[in-house]
Amino acid sequence: MVAYAQGSSVIREIRVDGNNRIESETVNAYLSVKEGDPYDPQKINESLKSLFSTGLFADVSIGFDQGVLKINVVENPIINRIAFEGNTRLKDDVLGTELQLRPRVVYTRTKVQADVQRILELYRRSGRFAATVEPKVIQLEQNRVDLVFEIDEGEATGVRKVNFVGNKAFDDGELSEVIRTTESAWWKILTSDDNYDPDRVTFDRELLRRYYLSAGYADFQVLSSVAELTPDRSDFFITYTVSEGQRYKFGDINIVSQIDKIDPATLTPLIEIEKGDWYNADLVDDAIDALTNSIGDQGYAFIDIRPNIQRDRETGVINITFTIAEGPKVYVERIDVVGNVRTLDEVVRREFRLVEGDAFSSSKLKRSRQRVENLNFFKSVDVKTLPGSSPDQTVLEVDVEEKSTGEFSIGAGYGTDDGAFGQAGIRERNLLGKGQDLRLGFTIGSSSQQVDLSFTEPYFLDRDVSAGFDIYRREEDNQDESSYDEKQTGIGLRSGFRYSEALSQSVRYGYAVNEYSDIDSDASRLLREEDPEFSESTIGQTLTYDQRDSTLTPKEGYFVQVSNDFAGLGGSETYLRTRVNGGYYYPLDREKTWVLSTKASTGYIFGIGDDTRISQRFFTGGANLRGFESAGVGPRDIATKDAVGGKFFYTGTVQMDFPLGLPSEFALTGRVFSDFGASEGVDGARPGEIYDEGSLRASVGFGVGWESPFGPIGVDLSQAVLKEDFDKEEVFRLSFGTRF
Question: Where in the numbering of this chain does the POTRA domain appear (predicted)?
Answer without folding.
Answer: 9-76, 77-154, 330-403
